[in-house]
Amino acid sequence: MTEQNRRPSRRAGAGRKARTEKRLAGGIAQAIWPGMQGGQYRPLSDTDMKRIHDGALEILVTTGIGEPLPELLDIVLPLGCSMNEYGRLCFPKVMIEDIIAGAAREYTVYARGSRQGQGDIYCNGNRVYFSNSGSAVTTFDSDNKRYRASTMLDMYDFTRLVDRLDNIHMCGDTVVGTDVPNDYEHDMSMVYALLAGTEKPLCLSFRSRGNIGPAMELFDFASGGEGAFLKKPSVIFGGCPIVSPLRFGRENLEVMIDAARLGLVSDIAVAPQSGATAPATLAGTLAQVVAETLSCLAIVNLIRPGCPVTFATWPFITDLRTGSFSGGSGEQAVLAAAAIQMGNYYDLPNSVGAGMTDAKIPDAQYGYEKGLTIGLAALSGANRVCEVGGMMGSLMGCSFESMVIDNEAVGMIQRVVRGIEVSDETLSIETIHHCAVDPGHFLGNPQTLNVMESEYVYPELMDRSPSAQWEAEGSQDLFERSKKVSREILCDHYPNYFGRQADVAIRERFPIKISSDDMRPDNGRWRA
Amino acid sequence: MTEQNRRPSRRAGAGRKARTEKRLAGGIAQAIWPGMQGGQYRPLSDTDMKRIHDGALEILVTTGIGEPLPELLDIVLPLGCSMNEYGRLCFPKVMIEDIIAGAAREYTVYARGSRQGQGDIYCNGNRVYFSNSGSAVTTFDSDNKRYRASTMLDMYDFTRLVDRLDNIHMCGDTVVGTDVPNDYEHDMSMVYALLAGTEKPLCLSFRSRGNIGPAMELFDFASGGEGAFLKKPSVIFGGCPIVSPLRFGRENLEVMIDAARLGLVSDIAVAPQSGATAPATLAGTLAQVVAETLSCLAIVNLIRPGCPVTFATWPFITDLRTGSFSGGSGEQAVLAAAAIQMGNYYDLPNSVGAGMTDAKIPDAQYGYEKGLTIGLAALSGANRVCEVGGMMGSLMGCSFESMVIDNEAVGMIQRVVRGIEVSDETLSIETIHHCAVDPGHFLGNPQTLNVMESEYVYPELMDRSPSAQWEAEGSQDLFERSKKVSREILCDHYPNYFGRQADVAIRERFPIKISSDDMRPDNGRWRA
After folding, report:
1. Are A334 and B368 within 8 A, CB to CB?
2. HSE-CB of B37 using CA atoms within 13 angstroms
3. Predicted confidence band of residue B283 (pLDDT cuts 50, 70, 90)
4. Is the pLDDT higher at A523 or at B177?
5. Which superfamily does A29-419+459-528 belong to?
């Protein structure tokens, strides 16, 4: 193709300013929105899904889950579960099928403050939302291209960055505050960072059940007073109650039991690793992760029938050359999508990890691995595609630059998920006739201006300039451009959604390990 | 997640050398192979496809195609086509439907020499192959991060590079030899570069019909003597016989007519651009491109019933802020996949352009845009995903580094296309039971070693090392690593598949604008 062919000199006649004004006037539909319908990608056949389901049930009947807690047995044994000869907790087929049939089909996580309503997320059917999370122990220092230990202050910084990124609909615990070793101080400061930094719906995990109670006080502070949180829960929490293969993990199981008792969503994550803590066959890993996840669904529903659980099958891949986790492979992409298909097979609210690239820097590998894993998770209809924003290095690290890149890329992916509306109007047979017969250009046709905002997403970071312009501007790559944009936000946006008065009360009551000084715009920590 | 959780210290016990030996011994199945079955991603519903089909037929009945050649009219008017009041060639509904019903459902493009058989590509059903192509007028100079004019020698270099890249199954005319302005000299040298540089199946375009005859002589040289080419055609050719919206382009229409007369595959490409040379609505662009492509299918079949045509709907996207072509957007990804779905709706051998990133350098944008567009084209079941290897800058440039990156990324994508085999054996219920009850690790289980080559693709370029190792090795990105690998091949692999004797005869007979000196390994053009 020649440059001439592809770069018509006629312009659409509407500059960005005009479009922005028109959009602000409320007249123009958006091209993407939160909660679009996925499900167009289906790696498994109906027969495959039935076989995986049958396999999972067989595992729960025969093999069961090891190391159940006595307090759990007290609840579930009288209700029909049993112990097998290996001391493992087993679940009858009929019980599991009844529980699936009666389980909550949806839940809502509410936004707070000015985001209320529009920012709520509705986990049901094939609706697709995107969330950051990942509990990375390191943070990427982009100037030196090295990873340093993550801090609690990073958590606040990542959260306020996400607060400004439209396509990340839910905010999670992206990093671990490695500078706060005390579990109670850590969890309270983590909750504080999230609630102070954004009013988007939140997800996180607790290190122990004992921290739930105090956290509920903080939730109430953020929601507007005592008891306010439970009326419109804006935070869901969980963790991995299963240590694969097929054993319970004490702390997260306790958190799940307590959340169920409170009637809150159990936002778990079950993450067996193919070839390491699950079979090396992808089908075997699927059968196991479905069994493990169904066991959690059963427990919550035995404690409190109908209490919502995220069907959170998060199967991971092992690079069998080294035994290491690999987050960005084709195997990961197809396995995660298949896991979501199982969640939708059961019609249960679900989530999955995607975007967990093995790349250590935002490069072509990063883009390929994130594009495939996030794109296919979304197209398979995951209610929540988690681990999306900023994660790098096989979940070991998070990056501010990566967060803004992923936000824009999710916009592209949402446009794909939206698909193509086919109607008499969009088929445009008359417009085609007119433009073909009376040789004009479609650019000048009124339809083009009418649909240019509703049909297309326009990137800000992704470069579409001609190569000569790109060279003249310094031959920059997306990583370099993302540095600038992420720092602009980090220099500018220092929210504290608690408000000053509540903040004082909170700091008196809880050991918040983020100083007020570091939350002031003039603190000098970031330079644009 | 902690480092400890994700990096088990136990190793699978089989190093790369052992695996390679086992594979060479023939005992191990491969994880990916050419021609896998796509079709798992379906952006359009059945109703959508029927409406697009109806719309396309209406366009052909009412609007027709402008500027038909007299020699074309002599053929098609007596067979039932007609001219409308605007002097445009129209096709009756029943004729198009009959032609679709009777059209060739498949074709084979043969490999030559030692690749015969295994390297052939079978375009039918949902089989998926990957091809480079793109006719880029510039080539990326990775040392200086600038684009320079492409040369005929680049064409030889790109071809011999592709010859060494397993996941690019067909080789096409990646660049234009801008140093060879004469059309005859250009086309003959182009054919020479492709046939000398690889024995993979080939696709290319001619600048005029007059060059087909002489090229056939070159094809025979490569295939082993006079008349040998037509017995097992190893090259398909075409171009864009349509200038959108809905007009014929003289030169490529003439090539299509002549190819049909010879009984050869018409490997066309129909590329309207949404909002510029087609409606701004994606559905309208689809209706138009289907109409344009069906008109070509009709013409070929009216000339020679049953002669194979590629259903090559290549709809492109315009960035309506500037009017420029944009190859990497979400809109492009979903539109191309929908176009392929239409080809599979008709059960016609098809192709599409994908991987046409707007990025000017292999960066995160590059990966996201290529991953989504190539991945979804493959999953929608395109027989040939074209423009895959090396293209950058909205098709303006090609890059040696990008070619090796895309080759490896296609391996990931093929793994996704393959999907997940669900059987009693792969479900591994007994293995799961054994490993759960007798707490061992799956890494040590015999099944793991048995399937580690058949279930997983192991990248060579994509980095999976721990971050500390990555930093110690210089914090390189994939672009830097791809430089090294591409240059190793370019320094080492200088094939001339014609053989010395034929080469002498060819150079006497044709104006080959690639010197023999430049095809010698010791020419010093490339340094590792």
Report:
1. no
2. 6
3. very high
4. B177
5. Trimethylamine methyltransferase-like (3.20.20.480)
Contact B467, A138 (CB under 8 A): yes
Check if A83 contacts B (Cβ < 8 Å): no
Gap from B484 CA to chain A (nearest CA, Å): 15
One DSSP character per residue, B258-321 reads HHHHHT--B---B--BBTTTB-SSHHHHHHHHHHHHHHHHHHHHHHSTT--B-B-B--BEEETT
Q: By the CB < 8 Å criterion, does B442 face chain A?
A: yes
CB contact under 8 A, A442 and B278: yes
Q: Do A7 and B413 count as a contact with CB atoms less than 8 A apart?
A: no
Question: Nearest CA to A350 among A238, A475, A217, A483?
Answer: A238
Q: Which residues of A touch B287 (CB under 8 A)?
A: 427-429, 432
Are B26 and B18 spatial neighbours (Cβ–Cβ below 8 Å)?
no
Query: What single-letter amino acid sits at A475?
Result: S
Q: Which two tokens stand for residue A245?
A: 């293969």
A3 close to B (CB below 8 A): yes
Distances from the Cα of A312 to the Cα of A167, A325, B95, angstroms? 21, 18, 53
Asked whether the beta carbons of residue B6 and residue A321 sit closer than 8 angstroms, the reply is no
What is the per-residue pLDDT across B302-311, written as a single tens digit (0 to 9) for each?
999 999 999 9
How far apart CA B34 and CA B120 sit, in angstroms, is 9
**Pure H helices in B380-460:** 400-418, 424-427, 429-437, 446-451
Considering only the beta carbons, identify the residue of A333, A361, A432 that sits closest to B245.
Answer: A432
Looking at the complex, does the CB of residue A412 fall below 8 Å from at least one CB of chain B? yes
Residue showing tokens 């990324």: B409
* A301-320 residues touching B, CB cutoff 8 A: 317-320
Stretch 274-293 of chain A: residues touching chain B, C-beta under 8 Å: 274-284, 286-288
Q: What pLDDT, on the 0 to 100 scale, is given for residue B9? A: 34
Q: Is the pLDDT of residue A439 over 80?
A: no
pLDDT at B386 over 90: yes
Q: What does the pLDDT read at residue A96?
A: 98
What's the whole-number mean pLDDT along residues B174-192?
98
**Average pLDDT score over chain B:** 94
Q: Where are the domains of chain A?
A: 29-419+459-528
Q: Note whether B147 contacts A: Cβ–Cβ < 8 A.
A: yes
A360 contact partners, CB below 8 Å, separation of at least 6:
A140, A147, A392, A393, A397, B463, B467, B470, B471, B475
Average pLDDT (B245-267) is 96
> Quick check: A198 and A159 in contact, CB under 8 A?
yes
Task: Give Cβ neighbours of residue B380 (< 8 Å, ≥ 6 apart).
Answer: B38, B39, B41, B42, B43, B336, B337, B338, B340, B341, B344
Query: Chain A partners of B376 at a C-beta cutoff of 8 Å?
Result: 375, 379, 416
User: What are A364-416's pLDDT values in tens digits?
Assistant: 999 999 999 999 999 999 999 999 999 999 999 999 999 999 999 999 999 99
Residue A436 to residue B475, Cβ atoms within 8 A: no
Chain B partners of A416 at a C-beta cutoff of 8 Å?
43, 330, 333-334, 372, 376
Note the pLDDT of residue B28.
54
**pLDDT (average), residues B111-128:** 97
Q: Is the Cβ–Cβ distance between B288 and B242 less than 8 Å?
A: no
State the pLDDT at residue A2. Answer: 38
Is there a contact between B287 and A429 if contact means CB atoms under 8 Å apart?
yes
Number of cross-chain residue pairs from A and B with Cβ atoms under 8 Å apart: 505
Q: Is the interface score ipTM higher than 0.90?
A: yes
